[in-house]
Structure formats: structure tokens, C-alpha cells
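Please check this today:
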Amino acid sequence: MSQAIVSQSSGPVRVMLCDDSATVRAALARVLEADPDIKVVARAGDGRQAVETLAGMSVATRPQVVLLDLEMPVMDGMTALPLLQQQVPRPAVIVASALTQKGAAVTMAALRAGAADYIPKPGAAGGGLHDASFRAELVAKVKGWARMGRAAAPRPVPAPRPSPAALLPRRGVKAIGIGCSTGGPQALAALVRGLNRKLPVPVVAVQHMPAGFTAMLADHLNRLGTLGCAEARDGEVMQPGRLYLAPGDKHLLVEAASGKLVARLNDGPPENFCRPAVDPMLRSLNAACEGGVLAVILTGMGHDGLAGCKAVAAAGGAVLAQDEASSVVWGMPGAVARAGLARALLPPEGLAEQVLALVASRAGAFA
């Protein structure tokens, strides 16, 4: 998966809508243009029309973000995606996916093929396109990917990396806990891709995602070939060098049992409007590891993970966070940074380097 490059002009974010339903296109346009910083500049009913429309527009008026449906007649989204990416400047493509197992599989294929992000289409039972959380997520992703594209060049000078000794948890690293939300699949993949050595501790991750999508994300991360990755199963003993992803709609907790770390899933109430949520995972991991936790907070809306990071820091653990420049939304990592908890702010690749350095310096086997 790669970050899309879009034009760097100022003014409202320019968006193209590609969906075979005129009703959906009109509804999406109303949602987006309710924000004065977004302007829908083109609409298309299928992939071929989107490609032809984009090619016929001047560079100054081309969309910076394309919201692309995946299931359409004439030319579907997967076929249109590489053709849209051939345009210069290249737009950030956010794919719209159905909340089904098939939709999740196609979405992950689109992300592997270079789509910037995805947005799940809400069902009618949840309020459809009028659902407040859907509207907030859509606007945040559109504006976030456009902002990142505008800042793509020139690249900022990398921030100096603190020495691992300055970051070490007092009790050593017994486990790593990762939290992410909006823009998280890309950031999580970049982080995992950088972990090119076997870790001597388990990794626990929460990505805000619907049920079904997390299994496909775990499969995608597993294919990267660095960490073995799968959805966590209730009662399984966590092994070093593996990543355990919280299943959609389940909280993932960790408990200590007979000198081992054990995964526990539950249907407890949402925290920070999320299930799975980062805070309960970090709190439980912190208690199970007696403070020997390295927490990493990646891009995402809101402040989920802040309370958990406070507990980690108070117990002598360490907290790292993604920097603002590389975050689609600097909500979760920004909250941790503003609270003074993050010992380093880096892009995902830099965070991977720090993680490897920390666990190599002083990993502590559980028990």
C-alpha cells in the first residue's frame, strides 16, 4: 500500500464522487459540501466515466480525492483504481465498501493495490449516509488525505530520533500495545513492514474497524512477512513475535495466567464510542505486564488510547506516537503528545526503528 500523491494547491479540497447510484452521489455531495472546506467538482456513475472525466479536466481543477465505489456496472472500482492512479497529479482514492465479508476482502485488495483508505457504507438500520459517525469519518478522511498530499513535497526534515536508552520502560519491554483508527490500516502496515526482525515479545493491536474487516486486515498484515498476524482468539496464549489484532465489535483484553499472557475477548460496552477500544486493551496489558509495556499510538480521530497511555506511563512503561505530518488525523496521537506522554513523535517507519531498538536493548520475557 502506498500513499497517493495529490496536487498541493490551496483552497477547498476538490472531490470526485464515483458511484452508480445518483441518489448516493447526491447524498454524499450534501455530506461533504456541508463542510465549507470541501467542494465536489465531478461525479461519475461508473469507473470508466470517472477515468474519462478525470483525464479531461485541467490540472488546476482535477479532484485531489476520489471517493470510489467498488461494485459498479460498465467498469467496477477495482478495474478503475489503477487507471485513476495513472493520472498526474495522482489523486488519493478512498474506496467505499459494503459491510460484508466480500466487501472486506475487496477493500483489502484495493488497499494493497494502492488505494489510500476505505470508508464502509453504513446500513439503513444504522441511519445510512445520515449516520453522524459515518459523516464525521468521511469528512475527516477526505480532508486528511488531501492535507497529506498537499504536504507531500518538499518532504520535511526528519526529527532527530531519541536514543533508545531515553525511552526504555523501567521494567523492560514485556509486550507492545498498538492503537489506531482513521488512516490506521496504512499506518499499521507501514509500522509492521518496518519490524523486519523477530520480536522477543508479543504485539497486541486495536484498529477501529467493523466486524469482518479485521480478519481481512490481519490477513493483509500477515502477508507482509514480518510478524505472524491473526485476529486474537479468546483464551489463547500470546506468543513472542506475533501480532494479535482485536476482532471487530469485540474488546481485546490481556490477562496474566500461569506466567503467560492470555487473550480475552468480551462484549463490554463501548469506550470512547468504540468497540474494540484501545484504552481497555492498554489498561489490561499494563496490569498483566506490571508496567512493562511499550505503547504505540497511530493516526486516528478522537482520544482513544489516552487514558491507557496514562496508565502505562504511570506504571513505568513507555509511549511512542505518530507525528502530525504523517497522520491522516492527528487526534489520538495528538492527544497523547499534548498530554506530555509521548517520548518520541515519528512516522510509522521511524516508530518501527524505535520499537526494534527498544526491545533489543532490554526485552523482558514475561514472568
Remarks:
- Residues 13-150 form a domain with the Rossmann fold fold (CATH 3.40.50.2300).
- The chain has two domains: 13-150, 165-362.
